[in-house]
Amino acid sequence: MGRRAIQSMNNPPADSSDQPKITTSATADTFDTHVDGTGRDAGIRLPRQKPFQRFWCTRVLSSLSFQMLVVAMGWHIYALTHSAFALGLVGLAQFLPMFVLTLVVGQVADRYDRRRIAAICQGLECAAAAVFAWGTFGGWISAAVIYVLAACVGAARAFESPAVASLLPGVVPRAQLSQATAWATSANQAAQIGGPALGGLLYGIGPGAAYLACTLSFALASAAVSTIPLRTKPVPRSPVTLESVFSGVRFIRSQPVILGALSLDLFAVLFGGATALLPIFARDVLHAGPLGLGLLRSASAVGALGGTIWLAHFPLRKRPGAAMFGGVIAFGIATLVFGLSHSFIVSWLALMALGASDVISVVVRLSLVQLRTPDEMLGRVSAVNSLFIGTSNQLGEFESGLTAGWWGAPPAVLVGGCATIAIALLWMKLFPELRRTRTLEREAHGGRAAA
């Protein structure tokens, strides 16, 4: 397809070197904590809060920049190579730094100002986009240069993703975290609607124009993220140890509901994702240009945005695990329809349905991580979550390019859709705790998850 204050106020954790104290730094009138019996009123009032507005706008800017860059890189590499395998290598180049840095980035997110981390990373992405523009205008951009710059962007996003994902609990009260997750997801979806279409339109004018727009947008995002006010300020943390490095992985392994949700999303999107092949479908199957490619990349975000707005007003309060499985199966069916289609309209609608079904999985997964993870471990757990996302997205792009090189793009998508449905059915057997989960939160802090 660009991401928790879990400690109970009535049962705070004991002081230890591994559990930093959290001090409140915002007044009550700055953050609206009102929630009615259904949570609907809080979901509507949440976007009116200025701290959350800044967070949301920053997410839009960052995601918009990345989506424009992805479209430009994809069309550019395919124009240079005419190779599905080369398209997959762009995804692999972004994934490898994330894989290598996973354990490091979680520690960084838990020990330093997450706003500063995000600002630095977005500044590095701005620099990469500027080099793209420079090379395009200078005429020296090659496939090798694109791979190197894609790897630089992947490294920056490896640090940025867990830092940004861990910011949200410091922006909104715990009672509003589920709605905030849906609204934050809508920021990504809004950017995924406008970003690809804008990127495709600008690329049609000239590749340099698209890269310059990415440069400007990344610069604005880097400046904006530092201004987000936080409700909490962590005190300095304990030194890094080998045990703390792997604690995020151990925590996820000890939580079958979280492990099931993360792994289901990973394998379903890894095999079912078709976004890496959209340049091939746009050019060779549907006979659309760069703007058509941008519209196709925006389609899933249109469906996802509608889904996130619905979930923000009517959050999943009962049987979220069952809803997640249903969403993944619907994702697989929509993928099959897209793979069979030769009509631009049908393909666009299939991608829209794909996005609407996928957002259920996204919101459930993010909410489980945010609400069931202690704040002092959130960066490390979010880093593992980001690795799962990167594996499903970037490594999934490589897998799609590889299979499309063997069988052709439409057969590769059809096989992926069937695999997604099969994985959802298998995971229902392997992770019954997730299927039976009644609520996103634990029944009590430190106890078993409600299931």
TrEMBL record:
Annotated region (Disordered), positions in chain: 1-36
Coiled coil: none
Biased composition regions of type Polar residues, renumbered to the chain: 7-30
CDD domains (alphabetical): MFS_MefA_like (cd06173)
Residue stretches spanning the membrane: 55-78, 84-105, 257-282, 294-314, 321-339, 407-428
UniProt keyword Acyltransferase present: no
Cellular component terms per the entry's GO annotation: plasma membrane
InterPro entries reported for this sequence: MFS_trans_sf, TM_effector
Pfam families assigned: MFS_3 (PF05977)
Locations listed in the record: Cell membrane
UniProt main location, coarse: membrane
Presence of keyword Transport: yes
Topology versus the membrane: Multi-pass membrane protein
Record key words, sorted: Cell membrane, Membrane, Transmembrane, Transmembrane helix, Transport
Protein name per the record: Major facilitator superfamily MFS_1
Source organism: Paraburkholderia phymatum (strain DSM 17167 / CIP 108236 / LMG 21445 / STM815) (Burkholderia phymatum)
